[in-house]
Amino acid sequence: MEPSFYILCLSIATLVATSLIFGLKFLGKRNYLLGFEWLVVTFSASNFLLYFLGGVQFSYRISYFLDAFSRGFGIPVIATAGLLAVTHRYKPSILVDILFFAAAVAGTAVLVSADFVVEPKPYFYVAMWSAFSVYLAYFAWRLLRAGEGLHAFGVLAVLLTCQAIASIYDFYKIPGDDEHAIFYVLACLTWSFMCVVMYYAYGALERAEKSEASLAAMLAAR
Q1: Helices 121-145/181-221 angle, 10° precision
Q2: Which of 38, 154, 173, 182 is least enclosed, having the fewest CB within 10 Å?
């Protein structure tokens, strides 16, 4: 096997590991939207790895569906709703969390099966991810305002790299990358980077918000 095959498998395994670790960490924070969305990425990447290692077609179909789920709804909608916990103190009930995922599954089913979305689908993915990028810019600004410049820089790096991957996914082919191996390596490493950076950025803003709330309570007590 060529070295590119092993590099690709390693990049997919990296995504499996990072999304699993930080998905569980988000669940530990009781942020079920972010936690389970990161675990959706884990399951998707695991099946993608099985497909490349053993040519398991069923695993490819699972990964294809979950990739559409995350690109169309999981990251742009569900992850954004999860991040709102530290930017807008939004904490939905378990029922609302379930409804988020149920609606996303229904929407994904339409994306992957309905004929009328075949042509506009790539543009839909880019539009949804662009909306997520706008929110990430706001998230970075909130971090900067809280004095967390390093984390703000990390979020901006996530914004730029993930937006680049989303923009070229269906519209640009890397020269010489006939089997899309280079693209998939870059995509997996970019999403791995996102899984790590957003967890620590979330924690930084969470601490800043708690400190601000504590200070406000102390001043009110006086």
Answers
A1: 40
A2: 173
